[in-house]
Amino acid sequence: MSAPDSPRPVQPVPGHLLSHLGVGLLKALSRLPLPILRAIGNALGTVAWWVAWPRRRVTLINLALCFPQMSQRERKRIGHRHFQWFICSILERFIFWTGPVDRIRALVTIENESLFTEHRGKPLILLAPHFVGIDGCGMRLAINSPYCAIYQHQKDPVLDAQMLAGRTRFPGAVVLSRQEGVRSTVRLIRSGVPLHYSPDFDVGIRDAIFVPFFGVPAATVTSMARLAQLTGATVVPWVSQMTRHGYVGRFYPPWTDFPGDDIEAATRRLNAFVEERVLEMPEQYMWSHRRFKTRPPGVPSPYSHER
Fold it and tell me: Percentage of the chain surpassing pLDDT 70?
């Protein structure tokens, strides 16, 4: 499938002047060479680490829960580096949303692609955990393949419009909001459109069960297992990593006997896989997300005093 050389135009949307200026600045910065962009991102990430103290606190709480054996100094080092990687990923996102296709291909290396292509056209779910490079690697995959992703609407209408335009810039790309339900998702999976799915965030108790994540009960949605049951889809893990020179998107062998008859066991398997990948690159997991905000009955939130 061929891809356009330029992104779809974003329709003008109402919004604050600062939002338009911010998006324009990010587009301009994305044209810089990667080493310069990374230097800017690292510097801004350090500023954010000290200024965005509520998110810093969430990050350190998450790291303390998941790595109690680790020294506080090491957890701070991981948290600081996470902020740097995260800000770099935000600056570079506009490369993937608006930049030349040849640059995207050059930036992202795909490993074990045959594990994906052998299932192309069949029901397929790509398990994509929330690492900071998820957007870039997902966009690289969408260049030559139909693609469906679940989308969370942004509060800022300017950013929301830009994000939607960027993520649907390639032919066959479909973005579904979380509010659209499962029917559209099931239909697309059954038609052979791969679902790029990230079920490792806390989105509340609905359709979720508590299973361990690094030994801590974490509300984890069962939807990936249930979608696999409904569609007969194969689950192939797809993990993103930012590197010094770009990005690596890595496919892992398809899961066998998934989900089986035990949805809880299948959901535990999901968290165990994410844990393994986190240990390989702890600085790049999304620790600034409140992963443990939903608690079992009677258990207080670890973030209850973050304000």
Answer: 93
Domains of the chain with bracketed CATH: 17-284 (3.40.1130)
Please give the C-alpha separations between residue 25 and each of 8, 12, 16, 19, 42, in angstroms, as whole numbers: 19, 17, 14, 10, 17
pLDDT band at 6 (very low <50, low <70, confident <90, very high): low
Following DSSP, what letter does each residue of 232-272 receive, concatenated? -PEEEEEEEEEETTEEEEEE-PPPSS-STT-HHHHHHHHHH
Q: What is the pTM of this model?
A: 0.91
Q: What is d(CA 140, CA 89) in angstroms, rounded to the nearest whole number?
A: 14
Axis-axis angle for helices 157-167, 134-142 (nearest 10): 40
Q: Mean per-residue pLDDT for 125-151? A: 93
Looking at residue 1, its amino acid is: M
